[in-house]
Design brief:
homodimer, 365 residues, alpha/beta, 18 helices, 8% strand, globular
């Protein structure tokens, strides 16, 4: 049987086995209308997501928290987070989006004014362009530095966390600056503050992250339990997603422009980048016709899997044509190029429209 | 020549020699109308106080910052700080009094609501009763946790301080909680924030402290210099005062009631405590008549020196009578008892009147 997305999970088996992250498949049946990213195994694991499934099914309130760190430009890999938010927004979630200006300052020296500007012009604009409804009253977007409820809570939580724990998780040492030492507690507070009585009160909360963020999630869950008695926190749930591969094969990263298609790229640039991407093709055409390609090693295929092809049937066809050697990389890239062109033309228009809402959203919160 | 307060400085000679704290005497001549505590060597040293002398003389603006940590009750030793504030208020200073509720929480687990209550009912009430004018528009009293300008600045400053520095100064280790690790930076911001453009702008600032606080002052001065370019900070000055000796000979401490006369004690209790205090008397009356007492070792004498006797001439007389063996401890205590009785009767009345202003002061800031 052809399973065009089974490979997604392979690399994360160890994580699942050793750290108690649960595979997502077991919950799929209980989830009405699951998003593509879950069906295709891109979101591959979770902790305590059962609570969220239950809240969605029973139409109880729940929260989603996912921060954005305003540094550099957004690339197409970041779209994955927004896709999840759009889906959660349809499900009626209380959505909290902290803009991590405090982290940006302590870790990268970005000024608070610059963070604000970048957040509005780049991140918030793209979030809206990609489908997040800025007018939904359950949406809360804020700058960490301006949210006193968060900074107050962070300090209160900080009393039950010691330096050894921080060192073990974040690898801090003696030369790490004190703002950097402290900022993970701001992020813990970002996740827990929706459950304060001044906000929503205790409710299931899910944090979508990459697997590299799991230590932070574990700390947050521990802290939630240490303060359970005081605040009634429900231990937050989390989901784990794969990262999209960069154009050159490694990680896609805003700080390495050659690896990334940026959301602000023109359709022409996007096509050019896609065409230069590493594929799962063989060394010679002849060999590829005989043995087929390897979609699991192909950036173009991943782009289709994550973002460009909504139809499972069509995706299966692409997969089959590749492994059977029916379609070569050139042809496949040309088809993908048309899709990415259309996507970027559309996104460009939406970004134009989104700009004005983006400017307003931080002020009216 | 009889110098009834020279001894005050003796114990601190090392501090002055090794750490660059300057003795106060050199500045005395330049200071118009210096307060008793300076004349009598109780405030024995300083860093860069010349700036403050100049500001006072030229009627330029300057700030005084001195925090109160709401924990336990105020004792008579704490009066020293208020005496200084009253004097500075007369000189037109911008007075900033942070109430260290964040420190109280991280170091002693005191709840924020409890801190607020204790600050109002005990500390602020006494400050006003002891002569601080609550209506002066240059007076700023605030809870750390409610002053966003301070918490914001603390975080910004924290980027240029690393863990090694904090460890060296405060002796933190791996089991120290993160709020405790962070709170010294709040105190640095307490001292520096009056110089922000949103407050007074750069101006000379003095922080009256005990010598045990000097490492914190040195850190604050270093940080001020690291951010000098950005904020234009004038490196803060400091003064150093002796602590009053406890009734039993050691340190006077609110957490050891036997050592302290509390400002909320009734006159009767205050007298009783004074009469039980350790003196500089000899083992036998005969011996004392022959050899005289040692006022430098006498808690009662210290009480006169710090607080009860305003007249230098009278104080000299007490000193001489003691060392010459003319007046024995019993007689001396009886005289001091009358003074302390009058002081506490008066203070009790003033405390009653001060209560209402104390309740208002945190709200109208």
């Amino acid at each position: 049987m052809i399973d065009p997305w089974s490979s997604a999970i392979l690399n994360y088996k160890k994580l699942i086995r050793e750290f108690g992250i649960k595979p997502f498949q077991d919950l799929l049946a209980d989830l009405e209308d699951p998003p593509l990213l879950i069906c295709r195994g891109i979101i591959f694991g979770h902790r305590d997501y059962g609570r969220i499934v239950k809240a969605i099914r029973e139409k109880n309130s729940f929260a989603v928290v996912t921060g954005m760190m305003p540094s550099g430009k957004m690339h197409i890999g970041h779209k994955m987070i927004v896709d999840q938010l759009v889906w959660y927004q349809e499900k009626g979630a209380d959505i909290y989006i902290p803009i991590a200006d405090m982290e940006s300052y302590s870790a990268r020296g970005v000024d608070f004014e610059d963070s604000r500007k970048l957040a509005i012009e780049e991140y918030i604009t793209n979030y809206i362009a990609l489908g997040l409804n800025p007018k939904n009253e359950n949406l809360h977007m804020y700058l960490q530095s301006e949210n006193k409820m968060v900074t107050d809570l962070a300090y209160k939580l900080a009393r039950k966390v010691n330096l050894n724990e921080m060192k073990a998780i974040y690898g801090f040492n003696g030369s790490t600056n004190m703002a950097h030492h402290y900022v993970p507690l701001i992020q813990v507070a970002d996740i827990l503050h929706p459950q304060l009585m001044e906000c929503e009160g205790p409710e299931p909360t899910v944090v979508p992250v990459g697997p590299d963020q799991d230590p932070h999630i574990r700390l947050t869950r521990d802290i939630a339990e240490r303060f359970q008695k005081r605040y009634g926190f429900i231990t937050p749930s989390s989901t784990y997603h794969r990262f999209i591969t960069g154009l050159t094969g490694g990680k896609m990263s805003s700080s390495k422009p050659k690896t990334a298609i940026f959301l602000s790229d023109s359709p022409e640039v996007a096509i050019k980048k896609l065409k230069s991407a590493k594929t799962g093709g063989k060394d010679s055409l002849d060999e590829q016709q005989r043995l087929g390609g390897v979609p699991e090693d192909c950036v173009v295929y991943e782009m289709l899997l994550y973002h460009l092809l909504q139809s499972d049937a069509e995706l299966k066809e692409v997969y089959r044509d590749c492994i059977e050697g029916n379609v070569m990389c050139g042809e496949c890239k040309s088809k993908a190029a048309i899709m990415i062109k259309n996507f970027f033309i559309e996104l460009g228009k939406k970004r134009q429209r989104a700009k004005r809402s983006a400017e307003k959203i931080l002020n009216h919160n």
